[in-house]
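Here we describe the complex-level prediction in full. Unlike the single-chain runs in Section 2.1, the two entities below were treated as one system.
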Amino acid sequence: MKSATFGGLKYLTLVVASLVTLLPLVTIVMASFKTSSEFQNTGPFELPQSFDFENYVTAFTQGRMLQGFFNTGIILLVSITGTVIIGAMTAYAIDRFEFRFRRVVVGAFLFAVLVPAVTTQVATFQIVNNLGLYNTRWAAIVLFMGTDIVSIYIFLQFIRAIPKDLDEAAKLEGAGAFRIFWQIIFPLLKPAIATVVIIKGFAAYNEFYIPFLYMPSRDLGVISTSLFRFTGPFGAHWEVIAAGVMIVIIPTLVIFLVMQRFIYSGFTQGATK
Amino acid sequence: MSLFSTSVRANAVRPSSAKGPLRDRFFKGSTPWLFLAVPLLLLATFTLLPVINMMWYSFTEWNGISKDKEWLGLGNYLEFFTRPELFRVFLVSLYYFFASFIQMGLALYFATILSFNTRFKNLFKGIIFFPYLINGVAIGFTFLYFFRPGGTLDASLAALGLEQFQQQWLGNPDIINVSLAGTSVWRYMGLNFVLFLGAIQSVNPSLYEASSLDGAGKWQQFRYIILPSIRPIVGLSVILAISGSLAVFEIPYVMTGGANGSMTFVIQTINMAFKSHKFGLASAMAVILLLIVIVVTALQRKLVPDEKVDLT
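The structure predicted for the assembly as a whole is:
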């Protein structure tokens, strides 16, 4: 009896939580299918008259979303490739070699974890500007690669688990450090690479501030900044903004549904470092 | 066996490379640096150098463009602490700080109940976690629509017969930070939840069986099995809540731009630099935030010693 009421309460709270989570999104979906006049004259919970994708077309073309996906795609691809290689190399050097100033190097990376990236932009901006990277995709690529410490942690954990006998055996076969890294260590890091790709992939897709600050040119809009710019031209047209929001969310939802298991374990590993 | 043979071979090889040791040692000495060159260059250029520059700027008056900076000493720091309208951002971060405890409480509750047998477990888990993955600008717009007059929230209140509670959720300075902090809970609770759930599920299930054979109820299982097992991750989350509530940026920036009393520390710093062109004062504020984060993290290392955090 007691456990039955507990069970009922449990499902009640779960349903309420699901409603609270989904309601803001469901009303956005409904708004995205309404015509302009329909939106003016109906409440958020009234179903749209028809499901035509006119607002989506408007958002996609006039909101320059295609360009946003293109720029986000390039930045994501290059910066993730770079992050994986850089993170794996750093972890390899730190874990497999004894060298002078090793502690200093480790300390420098540790310190970088503490620095909240949003605030240092005050000074980072000058450096990016002086390097001539302002208003280029390289600004975002280089900042995503250069300020990522979490991936180094993840690679370090995995590299430690790879037995050192493997390196030793290869060394005796005459393999140099670079061959050992590329042919033995790197392929064994696949689970770590998957974790890093997942975490960095979502981070790069969702990143708003860096492209907003460093890539103001309209031709360099990424997903986030393209959507952010909807406030100007579509200020009064919530139905188009809602379609833009959905265009940004749908890829995330699809990836989540397809890769749920990897995503949960990826974020669990990434956050607990 | 294989270990033994390896060492024999190693011994056999060493004498043959007679003129090798010096070159060997050079090779050994420089190899790690070849791997570290690019990572260290990036680290120095985009994290360490900015921090050093930022400290230097913080003692000067500088518009970000002109060649000369005027030395002010501690002037910028004094200005920050003596201008109440600047100092006010700490009050705003208190909203997010308290909200993050509600967030952790909810996450802990849902992680606990979903760690027991539950129907549609994966569905609920997915729904609770998914907001964490959504683009911040998309969340900002979704909640602008949610809070706007006649938007989702007002319509929900009307549907429940609670019209008297309808109000300017983002227009009223007394409410705005509650609305924004609530949005933040909606966005981030899923991560806490999944982390807690992971920690709870790493508990050996036989402990639950054994304890229920001994007559332990659900509450006792929570108190004596679940809570101790997630103590480290809860500790970490509390620390992150402190630095996180000072570093709040995206949601208020997208939704209100810091208007109506929703200005946060980071928005103010960014505006001070890129809108008011006071890079000195902005840098001083950024340094203050950095120092707070470092102190809080150092405290965490002291209070919650966690071998996993150790890089060496």
